[in-house]
Amino acid sequence: MTGATGFIGSFLVPELLGAGHRVVGLSRSEAGAATLTRAGAEVVRGDLNDLDRLRRAAEAADGVTHTAFDHGATNLAEGSESDRTVVAALGDALGPGRPLLISSGTALARTQGRVAVETDEHVGSEEYPRAATEEAADALGARGIDVITMRLSQVHDTRRQGRIGRHVALAGQHGRVAYVGDGGNRVPAVHVSDAVRLYRLALENGRVGARYHAVDEEGVALRDIAEVLGAGLGLPVESITPDEAPDYFGPLAGLAALDLPASSALTRHELGWRPTGPGLLTDLRALDHDAA
In this predicted model, what pLDDT tens digit does every residue of 96-119 receive, in sequence order? Predict the structure, then answer.
């Protein structure tokens, strides 16, 4: 497993161990290695840039879950192209017959105004760099490699909230919580405990070539999110125009105005997945602001 000590990975390791799997996690630090050892996992030392070590670890595995991403890259395009390289290396090492689960996002099925479904094709990396990961999966699948794509929504608990965590930080910087227009545009969400259970189900019973949506709530309105954040932070909440969005949201301005609901109906039917965790607004009301 890559990303074994990250937000999702730290929940996925015990999920897999509890189901009887042997887990070998990649760690770039002594502290991370110690955390994995305490959890009962084995450790491979290295990072995403060490492709030779990644290949050797994958060659010895029955399957790979790739939950890491190079957030230390100078920009999203650089990190995405690095991920394309990592996915290709892992797939080459596994070959046919052993699954590779990659991590993507429901926003890649860019369907403004319509609920995204698992069968929607992804946008191209020239439009959104993060699509490089799914393009790499497509290339492997065309060669008969067993790839399964996990499209994540806003994965959350009371400490982490994916993209919404950046909204929290921006609110602190600006002294107010903003949303664009009427704030009716939506983001899908899933609790981290449900997301990792879906990874396990896909690893155990997933269909080769499938795209699964880790989505509990199809769409939570940005206005509702802003109101909950404002109440929790003690800050005013206001609507801003699309022209004002870049000054407030910066690089997030494009996403802040998009309506990106997503369905997991096919995922639930195929894998028998039933989310049970708390909703996004519930976790935001109990937000640990020291960890956010």
Answer: 999 999 999 999 987 766 899 999
